Amino acid sequence: MKLPEPKHPFWQRLSALPFLQGRNGVIALPYLWLLLFFLVPFIIVLKISFAETEIAIPPYTDLMTVEDGHVQIDLNFNNYGYLFSDDLYLKSYLSSIRIALVSTFICLLVGYPMALAISRAKPSTRNVLLLLVILPSWTSFLIRIYAWIGILKPNGYINNALMGMGLIDEPIIMLHTDFAVYVGIVYAYLPFMILPLYANMMKLDHSLVEASADLGASPIRTLFSVIVPLTKAGILAGCMLVFIPAVGEFVIPELLGGPETLMIGKILWQEFFNNRDWPVASAVAIIMLMILILPIMWFDRVQNKQQEA
Amino acid sequence: MRFKFSNLMLGLGLAFLYIPMLILIIYSFNESRLVTVWAGFSTKWYASLLENEKLLEAVGKSLQIAFFSATGAVVLGTLAAFVLARFKGFKGSTLLRGMLTAPLVMPEVITGLSLLLLFVAMAQAIGWPEQRGMLTIWLAHTTFCTAYVAVVVGSRLTEMDMSVEEAAQDLGATPVKVFFNITLPIIAPALISGWLLAFTLSLDDLVIASFVSGPGSTTLPMVVFSSVRLGVSPEINALAAIIIGIVSLLVFASWFYARRVERARLKDIQAMKNG
Fold this sequence. Notes:
The structure holds 2 protein chains of 2 kinds. By secondary structure, chain A is mainly α. Chain A is about 75% helix and about 5% strand. In chain A, strands 1-2 form a two-stranded antiparallel sheet. In chain A, helix 2 (about 80-85) crosses helix 13 (about 280-309), helix 4 (about 125-140) packs antiparallel against helix 7 (about 180-200) and helix 10 (about 230-245) runs antiparallel to helix 13. The relative contact order of chain A is 0.12. The mean pLDDT of chain A is about 85. By secondary structure, chain B is mostly helical. Chain B has 2 domains: about 1-40 and about 235-275, no CATH class; about 50-230, MetI-like (MetI-like fold), CATH 1.10.3720. Chain B is built from 11 helices and no strands.
C-alpha cells in the first residue's frame, strides 16, 4: 500500500495559516466582546470610586489633570473613608450577608429533598417535575415577588384567612419586614438551588447507595454519610448560585422589605439614583465585589470541574 | 421513610412555588379594585390593560430588545462555548471561562452600574454611544445573556459525539464546513433553548435596564416596577396572568414536541434493529 506523499512544507504552512487565522478570529469575537463589556467596566468602576462628586455631566471629577505639562493623578480615598465612618454601610454589608446566608441555608434544606425526590422518580415523571421546577423562573421575577405583596400585606390573603377563621383579631405585620425578604429570596431562588443539586444527583453511582444499605446503614445514615458527601459539588454550586446574587439583591428588599431592612444592593441603588453620588455608589460596588470575589472564584472552579467531568 | 419524606417535601415545595402564582391568576378576574377581596368575576382588568398605551409601548420595546439580545447572545455564546469545548487550553482560555461564569452570579446592581459607567466613559472618549437607550440596553443584555447561552450550548457540545466531526474532517471538509454542516445541526436544539432562555432573561430584566436606559426607553419591567412600588393593582394581576399563561403554554408545547421527537427517534432505532 502506498502512503500519500507528505505535502511540501510550503503547502503545509499555507494550509495551516488561514485555519489559524480563522481560529483566532473565532476566539477573538466573544473574547473581545466580554473584555469590553464585562471586564473593562469593573476597571472604570474602580477608577470612579476614587473620584469626587461634582455637579456636572457626568457627575464626578477626572482623576487625571494636566497642569503645566505634568500629568497629575488625584486619588481620592474619601469615598471609602465615608463608607467606614458611617456605620449604615457596615451594617448593610453585614445584614446583606446574614440575610443571604440564612436564605441560602433554607433553600438548601427545602431544595435538597426536592431534588432527591425528583432524581428518584421514573424518567417520564422526572422530566415533568423538572419542568415544574424550572417553569416559575421563566415567568417574570418581578411579578412573582409582587405576588407576595398581596399574600403578606395586613389586609392580604393570609391575614384575611386567619381573621376570617377567628384565629387572630388584628392582622399580623408580615410585609415590609425581614421575614418577607427571606420568603421572597427563598421563593425566587429555590429553582437555582434545585437544578445543580439534581444534575449532581443524576451522576450519583447508585451501587454505592445500595452497598451502604446492604451493609446495614439506616436510610438516614446512608443519606448523610454517602449521598450528601457524593453530591458536595452540587451543594456548593447551588449555594453559590443563591448566595452571591442574594447578597446584592435589590428588588426583593425594595418591594418586600421595610425601612429597617438594610441590604447593600438597595443602598447602592439609592446612592446612585436618589443621591446621584456616582463615586460613592462605585465604592459600595467595589467593596461588595471584594466580599464576593472569593465565592465567585469558588463557583467558577466548581462549574469548570463539572464541565470537564 | 426517607423516600416518603423527600416526596412530601417535593409536594410542599411545588405548592410553595405555584400557590402564589395561582392566587395571582384567580384574583386577576376579581371585580373589585381592592385586589385581595373577592367581589365577583370580571374580565375588565384585561380590557383596561389593552387601553394602557404606556404599557403597550413598553411591551413593544421590551420584545424588540429581547429579540435582538437573544439573537446576539446566541451568536456570541455559541462561539464562546465552541471555542472552549473544541480549542482546549488556548492562551487565555481560563480568563474566557471566568468571564462566562461570573455573569451568572454577579449581582445585577454591580453589572448595571459598571456598564453604565462604561457607556458614559465611552461617550466621553469616542462619542459613542451618543445617547443611552435601546442600543445600550441591547449591549448590556447581549453581554449577560451570552453567559447563559454558553452554559446551555457548552453542555450540549461536550455531550455530543465528536467522532462525527472528526469523520467529516478526515473526509476533507474544512473546519468552517464541519461547523456549519455537522456541528451546528447537532447542537441546534441547544441553540433554540439558549435563545429562549436569553429572550426571557432579557424580557424580565429590571435592574440592569434601569441603569443603562435613557429617556424614552422605558421597558416593561420598568413600567411594572413603578406601578408595583405603589402597591397591588388589579391590572398588574391581569398582566401577570397573561405572562404566566404564555410561558406555561410555550414551555409545555416545547416539552410535548421534544417528547414526540424523542419517541419517533426511539421507534426508528427499534425499527432499524428489527431490520
